[in-house]
Write a structure and sequence with these properties.
By secondary structure, the chain is mostly helical. 78% of the residues lie in helices and 0% in strands. Helix 2 (21-42) runs antiparallel to helix 3 (51-81), helix 3 (51-81) packs parallel to helix 6 (133-154) and helix 5 (95-124) runs antiparallel to helix 10 (217-241). The model has no long low-confidence stretch (mean pLDDT 82). The chain crosses the membrane at residues 24-42, 54-77, 98-127, 133-157, 164-183, 224-242.
Length: 247
Amino acid sequence: MSPRITLAVAGRVLVQLRRDHRTLAIMLVLPCALMTLLWWMFDDAPGPVDQFQKLAPGLLAIFPFIVMFLVTSVTTLRERSSGTLERLLAMPMGKLDFLLGYAIAFGLVAAVQSAAAVLLSVGALGLDIEGGVWLLTVVAVVDAVLGSALGLFVSAFARTEFQAVQFMPAVVVPQILLCGLFMSRPLMPDVLEAISNVLPLSYAVDAMTAVRDDTATGDVWGDLGIVAAFVLAALALGAGTLRRRSD
């Protein structure tokens, strides 16, 4: 692994994204648009509980996670199917250089994406956060990077872009259902709670909820540490399973 090569790969990906205005707009604008839609849905809704305040922190983790998973998995597969990955790996560059370069590039985009969604939610949409906007932004960025890492990992098992998209119901949707957004995890059946305890998005949503409620900062960093461990594991597994080109 070479830091110089890794940064060169990251720079190449950032240049490509800058030229792809449609993908860049989806990555940066879509989470903000979805948060605005959520606020609009519940703006005048009756009831003792403000549903936007209840759901928004968890969705600030989920929306960037979904977007980065889709974009990263499809983009990586496109590199392989077009032969670009094979040409890159023919150079003095390892698989880990390639994956880390992609992770850095998409991580930077994820930071901008998550910061924009958080600032919009707190500043314009009135989301009340007890634990601090900066900490909420850090959690959102780590969650988006998690989506990128899982996207890089699953792209190794797809042969077409359509197959890459099909991994979303298998990898992403179960995590959304079991992450605690719709039902508290301790209230789930024992088997489902046990499954949720080994899914990274559960800890991402826990961290967001803890920041909202100003729970002990140690709990937030503990959850973030678990999410970061999943990121590193996904990148390591991705390096081991990455194929040079589609069969």
